[in-house]
Batch of 2 targets.
Target 1
Amino acid sequence: MTSAPSLQPVPERPAPDLVRIRDLIYSAAGIFHPDNKLRLLQDRCDRRMRELKMQTLREYLERLTIGPVRQTELIALLNDIVIGETCFFRNQQQLDALCHVVIPNILQIKSQLPQRRLRIWSAGCSTGEEPYTLRMLLLDEAHGLLKDWSVEILATDLNERSLSHAKEAVYGNYSTRNLTPEYRSKYFLPHGDQFRVNPAARSNISFSRLNLSDDARMTFMKSMDAIFCCNVLIYFDLVSKRRVIEHFFNNLLPHGHLFLGRSESLYGVSEDFRLVHLPGATAYVKAERSPAGSKTI
Amino acid sequence: MTTAPVGKQVLLQRLDGLRQIPTIPAVLAPLLRYLDQPVEQLDVQKVTDLLAQDKSLAAQCLQMANSPLFGRWQKVESLRGAVVSLGFHHVSDIAMSCGVLKMLPGHKTSLDPAIFWEHSLGCALVCRHLARKINLADPGKAYLAGLLHDLGIIVNLWVLPQEFRTAYEMARAEEIPLHEAEQDSLGFTHCDSGRLLAESWGLAPDLVEVVSYHHSPEKLSQTTDLVALVHVADLLCRMSGLNYGYAEARQVNLFEDAGFDLLAKSSMSARDFDWARLTFELDSYLDEVHSLVRAIYRT
């Protein structure tokens, strides 16, 4: 009988209740935890269970599904899941795909137009790390790919306090943990024991307060080439989510791209957008609509 | 382009004059023939004995049997245990996967054999997953088709190492699909060289079609589900980290892809299938495949 010299340790089979919680989060909020990220989900559930003094995942699953406060608990869990995700250069593969594939395609499509303008919207920008990251990446291309192009970044959030933080542009070690030394020295200035985004990277970003459910104001967000809306739609119920997505459809130019958070999906939410695969990342583009006009929501 | 493509004629001549044409490892043919019988007639000891004839193949099979990719969560320490707990079908998948590994050159001239094997294994797993989810093909057959779809790359690595290296370096530098670079630089693709090998081995006609047409399923007068399935699985793997060691700088919209269209015609559920979720699940496959390949290459 042959035996192998060194067998890998066999990972534990995921607990069935954890898999049920994974599926619940996916169907309610659109965030999927693949098997290799289930430990992360387990940690977040453990944190909630400690707070609620619960012993088993089964009890916690019941609170998420049949308790009177299930909706509140789901939001508390989602907060724990996405907390700490806010940082500069959060999703490098998504950003690489934007710079290497999406923007070159957009520039080619728009090259015949008289106005050489690129508009990107960070919808739900929180404390500003995302729009500043985008600005830094686009500044890197200012004398290359984007020479002679004007770039405008719109950043909106519902929360006034987050927006003031964003405008202040001062960040600690946690937010800046993914920064390479080059980016740190190129686009940041020391600010006490923290860092402040330098004036160049603060330029051409307009911050404003916006509720994505405000139908009247949403119609003013016009001619977008790309929208980033990461980990924001997870808090909306299906009807509101569909309404926001319908707005995004109208806000985007025909070639526009919608970027969501890592492992965030629009499955079952909208037929207006098609999933596209980029190297190591996904995005959504506008699907061809039937000539009969827009779909009702 | 500074050099003229070598063309299919040169490929044929080299294949003809070369004794090193990759063959299915000796032990696999009798094993697979044996496993082809009805399950009721199979004997665990006989399968174990056949596998044990090739010590390194046996060790690799055991490594694979312990991977969650094959649905096992308990440690399996003997070949017999692996055969019993995995079932005959998975043993055949695993043995064939190790067979492909054994056909690869031991050294890296251009495309790293370990990366190539990761892609083949990843594609096989996605094919099996898709076959189950959208009820298109027998999952075992789909696994085999995914595993063998790039046989032509093995041929190119053995028969035209320098010329293939030029094509590979071009694909990498320009971030374009490998078969496009092969067409430009060699004058043929791994689909053409794969077909020669698949036919010389006498593979089943549907597998020969997969090897020959997975980049152009629309060129087949009657596309089989299997070719369209492998086409889509291969595309998803290449856009994820289960690629050939470089990322293709492009955007893929499945709904505008001719091969996907053929898949959707065969399976009602393909258009409604949750492709986003599958893409996220690929992330898990990626980790598992990496750790499996690392473990096997260490032994």
Note: The mean pLDDT of chain B is 87.
Target 2
Amino acid sequence: MLKKLTPAKISMGVIEIVGFFSLVAIVIMMMLTTADVILRYIFDRPILGSMEMTELLMVSIAGLSLAWCTLKSGHIRVDIITNMFSKKTNRTIDVVNYILTGGICAFIVPALINRYIEGEKLDLRTYVLHIPEGPFVLLLSFGYLLTFLVLIVKIVKSMSGEEK
Amino acid sequence: MSPALVGALGVGLMLLMIFMGVWVGTAMLVAGFVGFIYLEGFPRAFTVLGTEPYSQIASYVLACVPLYIFMGITVSLTGIAGDLYNTANKWIGSVKGGLAIATTMACGAFSAICGSSDASAAAMGKVAYPEMMKFGYNQKLASACIAAGGTIGILIPPSLGFILYGLLTEQSIGKLYMAGFIPGILEVIFYSITIHLLCRIKPALGPSAPKTLLREKIYSLKGVWAMLILFLFVIGGIYAGVFTPTEAGALGAFGALAISFISRRLTRSKFAQSIKDTTQITAMIVLLITGAFIFMRFLAVSRLPAMLSEFVIALQVSKFVILICIILFYIIIGCFWDIYAAMILTLPLIFPVIQISGFDPIWFGVIMVRCMEIGQITPPFGLNVFVLSSSSNVPVKTIFGGVWPFVISDLVHLTLLVLVPQISLFLPNMMRH
């Protein structure tokens, strides 16, 4: 029997899938750099532009994993004071935290889109392989947008007492 | 309001948010962005918010973060901690306090591959603690040596702490790795001497384990030699300038995967787990780094770090007095804060003071990491103590009761590192790159 699909469940599913691609990006980055070193020292034929590909992969990993990490509440916090508070107070603090993070994400998304538009005007590309930077700026922006969505779901869940 | 006062208020706002439980990365982002709007106006702040998250993350140096994390997590999931302990135990277990010394040595070796303090403490807690209890070791000594040994993880390369320090202060990560190597080995020696002395004074604390034959000793190397060679390959490669720290991270991760697969220690589920954990920690670091750089841009505009440096010079006190104050500051915040958060939050203000005082930035990186290591085992919030307590079910109070000899050893070790900078700088100075 099909379970009822809510927008929140669909968003979470999308985030899990996007997170999976960040796992793939890490493996590609490891393989690429390893292959570059081996080819350089053994065959004297390094992979052209491997350094800038690694940089772009790093952006991809960040963009694809940020929402996932937020979903799992994996960010660092200092809880020496909040541990002394009641559960109810901590839930309020969580909501404030999510609102602040969501608020800053709401600024970062258009700021990165603006950076993309400016970059497109200047036709910003990498030095060796001339890969356009624009899609990667957009990917990072997409990551912050997904993070924003996760935080909205978290706010709703915290307020309704669903989130522990 | 003067820009420096705005800077100080920005620091205050950020600390307030952090203590109220806001994520550290978010607190830095919000305080940096709001402060920037106040000082430079919204359009400029908006531009910074669009450039920094991309330019700081599209970094070849930052790419070594997921690679080393992947290497460390892969290795720690394969049960190498048990083999390292078994090997150290066979070689040194028969001396007074031998099992505890073996634990410390295994912690050092595990750190060399894993690079994380709490992971070392958790892994050794599961392996070494039951063994020491079996031989009638004192519970305080057994648990405290694991908690203290775990701290070596952030000093012996590869260390995530050094990567963050290098990123934030624009220092060579390769040199920082080399700078932590000898102090890390010295730390193992200091702990071993401490344990041996304790057991000489009170033999009941740590009885000797049965003697082993040379054949058994050599046979015990079977499970660890490949990983130790991998470590030497990675660190040796950086030292010789054969590869960059990022390349070394990739080779290390690939090598760790290959060894684990060949030795059939890494199942598909463990592989999936290691890569998931890597991604999550990387994303956490991404938010921290983004927040740190936006906050640093704001501080630079406010001129607060420059004014703080000028203030320190105007004090006309010896630079060593300043250094002692900074060391005490880091030991204290190390007791309360996560090392990475503490580093990212304080470096923008402290590092300019260190530079203007004429201290070597590589050497200071070692000192800072060492100070915060001490905080990981001291009350009230020594992270390693809590991690060990949850992995071995030893009460926190018992572990804290046993750590004091190790804290004293730490302070002696730290004093030595401060008085003889060459201990840290010898290897980096020998590097050609």
Note: Chain B has 22 helices and no strands.
